[in-house]
Each structure stands twice: as C-alpha cells, then as structure tokens.
Write a structure and sequence with these properties.
By secondary structure, the chain is mostly helical. The chain contains six helices and no strands. It is globular.
Length: about 220
C-alpha cells in the first residue's frame, strides 16, 4: 500500500481537478435544474462512507474475536472516516433538499436511519476516547452494530415510501449524468483510501510511541 500511495494521491488529485469540468459539462436535470449537480458530491460521499463502514466492520470483527492490534488501528481509522464522509452527506443532503423538496429535513426513514447510523459511529469514537480500560472491545461491538445498520439504511427507500428515490435510480442514469457521477465517486473512494492510509500510519506511530513510554517507565 505504501508503494502505491504516491500514485493514488496523484490519480485522486487529478480526478478532483477534472471533476468540476465534467460536472459543469453535464446537462441539467429536467425538473431540478442546477441544484441537481449537488448529486455529484452527495452520492459519492455516501459511497465513500460505505467503504469506510465495510473496513471498520471487518476490522472490528477481527479485533473483537482475534484481538489483533493492527485490525484495531484500521477499525478506529475507518470509523473516523465514516463520521467524516457521513457528515458530508448530511450537509449536502439538506442543501439539495431545500431546493428540490422545499424543506431542509424530513423525518422519513432514509434520513432518520442515516442520521442514527452516523451517531452510532460517533458513539464508537466516544467509547474509544472515554470508555477507559477495555473500551476497545466495547467499541468493536458498537462498530459491528453500526455496520449491521448499513444495509438497512441503503435498502430503506425500497422497503418504505420515502422522499428519496429508490436505489434503482442511480444505475439507470443516462451516460451524460452517470459518467460524471462515476468520476466523482472514484475520486471520493480514492480520497478514502488515501486518508485511511495516512490515519493508519498515524495510529502505528502512536502505538510505537506508547511502547517507548512504557519501556521508559519500566
């Protein structure tokens, strides 16, 4: 991963530089007009969040049952990114909704469940920070609960009536709209990979520093 880090940064930066041009060239959606272009940042932020949720869930399961410290570093690093990208989605969503639906927020199942999922991972970080000895295991269980809510949040629009479009909308977008969305989605996924790599590296350095302090105390 470290050897690929440089190229990933370059490719990700190039995608973010190119994204505004392709978004500007994309046609306006017939009913929402210009405001629809928030989609090119709103949807990719959720895609990146789900990548982070997957990593956090898998790493938390490994740490919970195997107590592997590397898995714990990946779990906490990914959890921070879950909160970051989720916050992006929760900010861009109401900005889009205000113009598209006439309200900033509606307490429908997709919006409410997405907010609750965000709060679960905030709780994970709070448990890690203030839970005291053994909090890593409790936090891992919290992360698994948050991960389990992910599919529910995603499929909620297909199960209940909601102001959100169904999950079948994005795959059926015309290429003029789908291509810029694919580009920005790839950019956000690469951003997630880069941030995860940096955060895990920081966690490794923090662990090494803690070991040095313990050695000095002994």
């Amino acid at each position: 991963m470290r050897k690929a880090f440089g190229p990933l940064v370059v490719v990700g930066a190039a995608l973010f530089v190119a994204a505004p041009y392709f978004i500007a060239q994309a046609p306006y959606e017939s009913t929402m007009g210009l405001i629809q272009k928030i989609m090119y940042y709103h949807v990719p932020s959720w895609i990146a969040q789900y990548c982070a949720i997957t990593v956090c869930g898998v790493a938390s399961a490994i740490y919970l049952f195997k107590s592997h410290p590397v898995a714990d570093r990946y779990a906490v690093s990914a959890a921070e990114l879950v909160v970051l990208f989720g916050l992006m989605g929760l900010i861009t969503g109401p900005l889009w909704a205000r113009k598209a639906w006439g309200v900033w927020w509606q307490w429908d199942v997709r919006l409410t469940s997405a907010l609750l999922m965000e709060l679960i991972f905030v709780a994970y970080l709070l448990v890690r920070q203030y839970g005291g000895p053994g909090s890593e295991k409790l936090a891992s269980a919290t992360a698994l609960f948050g991960t389990a809510t992910g599919p529910f949040v995603y499929k909620s629009v297909d199960i209940w009536r909601t102001v959100h479009p169904k999950t079948t909308v994005v795959p059926t977008l015309p290429s003029s709209l789908g291509a810029p969305l694919a580009l920005t989605s790839a950019a956000f996924v690469l951003l997630f990979v880069v941030l995860l790599t940096l955060r895990v590296n920081l966690a490794e350095r923090q662990a090494a520093l803690d070991e040095m302090y313990l050695a000095l105390e002994d």
